[in-house]
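User: structure tokens for this one?
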Amino acid sequence: MRSRLIACRSEYVIIARGTVTRRPEGRENKETPTGAIEIYPDEVEVLNTCRPLPFQLDQAGQVDEALRLKYRFLDLRRPEINRNLQLRHKITQAIRRYLDEQLP
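Assistant:
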């Protein structure tokens, strides 16, 4: 089989077909959920590409706030922001539930 180098970015959507194996002892990456395994692809297909993001989501805390606000749709994907939105929803829901109970 002839191999061809495919340039991929973290934002790309791909399909990788191949052998999935457990990483050797001591080589696991404990910082990622899939850090205990690795794939040796026989075939990779790029389904969709993306222009480079204006900032990396995992480094958004170090980015200028004006840039984060300009690209708010990206900022909302961050776990901290998502948790804040869920908390705000629950608080608002509790307030509305309480006020509904106070109606005659």
